[in-house]
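We treat protein structure as text, and this decision shapes the records that our systems exchange. Because each token names a local backbone shape, the row as a whole describes the fold. For reference, a complete record is included directly beneath this paragraph.
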Amino acid sequence: MRQAFVASATLRPMARQLLQDRTPAAYAGVQAFAARHTKEDAGSLAWLVIGYAHILDHDYAKAIDPLNRARPEAGDLGDYVNFYLGSAYQQTGRLAEAIATFGTFDKNYPDSLSVRDAHVVYANALTADGRANEAATLLEADRQPIRADLELALGRAYEAADQPTKALTIFRNLFYTMPTSWEAGQVQSDLTKLATLTQAPPVGLEARRTRADLLMKGKQFSDAANEYRILMGDVTPAERPAVLLTLAEALRRAGQNREARKILELVPTSPPELNAQRLFNQAEIARSGNDDDTFLLIVDQLRQLAPTSTWLEQALFSAGNIYLLRRDYDRAIDSFRELQQRFPNGGRASYAHWKAAWLSLRQGRVVEAKTAFDNQIALYPTSSEVPAALYWRARLAEEDNDGSLARAFYLKLSQRYRNYYYGDLARQRLAKLKSADPPVHYALLDRVPPINPSEKLASDEVPSDNLRVQKAELLANGALLDFAVRELRAAAEEEQAQEKARAKGDWVAVEIARLYEDAGRYDAAIETLKHAAPNYFALDLPSLPRPYWEGLFPKPFWGDLKKYASSNALDPYLVASLIRQESAFNPNAVSRANAVGLMQLLPKVSKGVAKQEKLKKFTPQQLFTPAINMQLGTRYFRSMVDKFDSFEYALAAYNAGSDRVQGWMGRGKYRDPQEFVESIPFTETREYVQNIMRNANVYRQLYGAP
């Protein structure tokens, strides 16, 4: 397999192009490679790639020939070749060949990750060939863990085998307990037919309610509303109010506020918890219609009628945000403080406490703010607001000329939250607080828990002798990235089970990230490593192996990035951080607002910038070209920096718009840009600015001068 890996290395870019575009030219390129390596493993891999590309095109007939050509030299990739060949046979009605291909699959490839997938396709072929009983026997032994596609195939087998009762049982379970699956939508007509045939009793209310609830949980609100509406005709009078209320909520979340409002008028005002939920939904409808006054009146009703209800907790949170956006900071403080005091252990308590503390400082209540910052650390020491509380408490100590307290808080912040936004700011402040005196101990700081040592990662060597690892490398040469990642994860699980690796399987995340990076999928690489090391920002550089850092903070497109950053007098690392935040280096990214490419530029904005850059015949499609996107993006960002004379303000404008930033700037004086950032009322924008400034600092530590 190692020889095959070396021989097929040059296939990778051609295969990637084919699987991405599937143009005639791309097919021709890979086919030419396959023809040159006909009697080699590398040629077999190329034929597999061609066959798989046809599968992606749903052109199953064209997939058969290249997959057959791949078979003789398939070697350890034989399971992939035969799985897709058998699938192509089944899809084109060549059942005898499909059955023959899958008939020996388990024997030939007992360790394949595709065994259960093969069973599903094999069973469908057997059923279509009149051998439904064999199909059912095959699938019955393979039902756990449950899969919707397997259940559908099993139900179809029983249906074809004249066992309608078993088929109905399976289809009902699929329809009512897996309603968000594609397969559930395929059995609806069968349910009526089979129920009539078997004279089975109707499905009970509990199962129907389960389906509606699962649709709601899956955010298929319109479908959930339809199910609740049907339920209304059959529920008991005692159950009716709760179903009415859930129907109204589904309609509201589906954007059907007018109908939701009418339904809510039918919901009774007792018991109290039901009434609280009814009022909350009415309040949310008012809020979505920008009727803040009605919303706040309903909050008053909730306060009187349901003072301990979670619905009041949610409403107070919304009320605080409404007052915040209205710039009515005293009332915002009251709402956030009331939320925290009524629900001190609730999920929003820490955030609400911090907002009340911060707004107190902004209102000039410095003594009150000091106490609140201390309480934030004491009451919620593990919360995400602690770094901000430590920093701003130290800043207030500096203003009081209490250098000892300031140093102690900055030191704790720098050590515990090493690469957080406020961690770097703390080190900058410490550099100005030079003192020969030993640090003073403050018991409050002991409340902040240390990093869990078990969460630190080592850099284990990739087990290169593992066949799955070798298989993954070969699949990656064919740009079959999803298959390669699947093999690596399986290899790590097997190594752990055999006690050949560390408990965390530390090599696998870095290896998967490397494959993603080699394929230009930097976004997937970053997400893989974030999941493997979720607390990486709390660590200093030596505490995490360098491959993690380099994968988390990559430098793709660096030549063009540095060129256009420098031409606009921008720090390349700041631009890299902005791109990391905007698109995670995915040049094909498109947002819900239709922002495009690496720097997420809106086509309308980019046209104006293109004129400034004198780009002739510019079209928005060019925003997918990394160099052009960065040329326009850096020029646009430079205009924000020139307008606001601060990177923090410019980043806020890049995310939320210049007009909003100018409005926020008019809300009183700020000590410095850091105070402005913490005062941004939009959580998304505030975290956006902090993340980019933080990430730029990590880039500088990792790579030095750009």
